[in-house]
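User: Hello, beginner here. Can you help me understand these amino acid letters and fold codes? It all follows right here:
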Amino acid sequence: MKVRGANTDARARLRPAGVLTPGGRAGRKHAGLRVLLVEDNEDHVILARRALESRGHGVTAVVGARAAMSALAGGEYDAVALDYQLPDSTGLDALETIRRRKRGLPVVMVTAWGSEQVAVEALKKGAKDYVVKGPGYERELVRALELSAEKASADASEQALRAELERRARTDCLTSLLNRGEMERVLKREIRRASRQHRVFSFVSIDVDDFKAINDTHGHSAGDSVLCRIGRILRQSTRASDFVARWGGDEFAVLLAGAGLSAARAFADRVSRLVSRVSPASPRECPAAVKLSAGVACATRPVSRATDVLKWADRALYAAKVGGGNQARFCVLGEGERASVASCGPPALVAHEGENRDAER
């Protein structure tokens, strides 16, 4: 379609391939969109640009698919108007590439007269809308881009809200660690994986010694601060493959993937040293450091049930508390074979999966 009377300045706004014009600002519901216009016809660019800019939108115009990919790599856009006829590609191929590289970016396909089948195919491949070129098509293009960008923004907000709700369902609101329910799911998954891959893991139950006294003496805000600082120490003391949770109250849980007895003992020693530097208040107000007790269940052989791991970790923790606190006790879960263990502090527990007794070494 030829536009009569178009001046050369307007015509010059269509840049050569790979040369971009400044994009507009991100903005309101229908104004201030940053639109990438991918065309091969100067006259159509002039029409679309004029209609979009009259609505307050910023336009970057490029020629061809390669230039469009360069523009997308170098800038942020709220919507793309993509012509089907491109000098170096078809619009459908370019659409697939955009969808791979910029997931969620709305694309409106622009087709020529008699190409409704192309438009239908574009919708199947992920285009949000299509516009058929004809007299006054540029006004329809503006509406399609605005509605597509609005819908994409609403979808992104909904996804963000859903992700936040899922995060809150998995994490503890005070420490931002995993919560108990999520850690139990992680433990069950690790048991299955350890069984398939024939690898060990250790589960650590941790309790803050005399935490009630901290709350009673210094207040619950000081107690909350202590819990948050311990949570940070536990995160900093673990690897990306490990998991840390607030088990409840003043208790924590740590899953050390692939860690046997020696690695679990090193972890307990390291955390004990770091936590000993934490105090509920200033040294003048509270010279005593925070202390922990830990019970560690080391699964050196396949374990069938999470309840067994939790049971023996809890029994080891109980033994540490009964032994005076500020120490770690260990038990090794196996299948019918006794294991030699070392202890951190008083003697460790030696446990066998399915047994109902503790054996002091």
Summary: DSSP finds eleven helices and twelve strands in the chain.
